[in-house]
Amino acid sequence: MSYVAEIQIKIRDLAALAAACRRIDAEFCEGQTTFAWYGRFVGDSTPPAGRNPRDYGQCTHAIRVPGARYEVGVVQALDGDGWDLLWDSYDAGGLAGKLGAKAERLVQAYGVEAARAEALRSGWACTEERQPDGTVLLHVNAGA
Asked: How far is CA 83 from the centre of its chain?
């Protein structure tokens, strides 16, 4: 069984994505051209809109999550602007259990790392505060 989907985030900074992977104890596999998934579409599962079913499982980079059988594929966005993340969230693959039902852990980690990188590029100071519910507050100080 497969539940293939596109994770709802646009990646524009691969260095921030790699840092996000480290943050959640995943591995950014630069240059890996395939990603593990169920391997075929089953019943109610279809490829994300605009994606060719024959190309599913192919990628430019991948994300490996310890303890999961499946991987996340990093693929060129259909509009050519940045990267999209593809995955198979079926429970047996283990990704949803590690990343969240909609990959919330990866999305949050990327958001924090991308914002931090942009703040630092702008010369601003950045501190992080983890909340009891797991959310992260990023404090950016542009100076006086």
From this structure: 10
pTM: 0.90
Question: Angle at which helices 14-23 and 104-121 pack, to 10 degrees?
Answer: 130
Contacts (Cβ under 8 Å, ≥6 apart) of 98: 26, 65, 66, 67, 68, 105
Q: What domain range includes position 94? A: 4-101
| Residue numbers in the chain where pLDDT is lower than 50 | 1, 144
Domain assignment present for 10: yes
> 55-78, pLDDT tens digit by residue?
999 999 999 999 999 999 999 999
Domains identified in the chain, total number:
1
Burial classification of residue 15, based on how many CB atoms lie within 10 Å of its CB (0-12 exposed, 13-18 middle, 19 or more buried): exposed
- The angle subtended at Cα 75 by Cα 41 and Cα 77, nearest 5°, is 105
Residue-level pLDDT at 144: 44
